[in-house]
Amino acid sequence: MDKLILSDAEWRARLTPEQYQVLRGHGTEPPGTGCFLGTHEPGTYVCAGCGNPLFRSGEKFESGTGWPSFTRPVSPDAVVEVHDRSYGMRRTEVRCARCDGHLGHVFPDGPPPTGLRYCMNSAAMRHVAEGAPLDPPGAG
């Protein structure tokens, strides 16, 4: 997969202020506020920054945490996991493998079959309805 590398000015022009704050500033939207929290429509969640497919709707579950949660990414190479020691915590950050945008964190307290909870920010993703063409990477 080709990496998407843009300048800060290009990212700011491409993203909404909220998307920029989450994807490029490693921010977190307040719990319970994300537009995809209660979404159950079939489809694929793609990176809002670059269009990279991230999660399928069939892997989404209600975690009760206030953020959309998934049991696994579309493929192992769709995301990158990075050790995060910010704010005095030990967590695993999840980033888009194509544009390195911050998506959220993964925790080992999810349901079977993976036991993982990919806790994502709605602002970091777009939902593409089942049957609709996925944008080519970079079209985010």
From TrEMBL:
Cofactor mode of binding and number, as noted: Binds 1 zinc ion per subunit. The zinc ion is important for the structural integrity of the protein.
Residue numbers annotated as active site: C119
MsrB domain mapped to chain residues: 8-130
Binding residue positions for Zn(2+): C47, C50, C96, C99
Gene Ontology biological process terms in this record: protein repair; response to oxidative stress
A Pfam entry, by short name: SelR
Obligatory cofactor(s): Zn(2+)
PANTHER family associated with the record: METHIONINE SULFOXIDE REDUCTASE, PEPTIDE-METHIONINE (R)-S-OXIDE REDUCTASE
HAMAP family in the cross-refs: MsrB (MF_01400)
Family affiliation: Belongs to the MsrB Met sulfoxide reductase family.
The protein, known as: Peptide methionine sulfoxide reductase MsrB
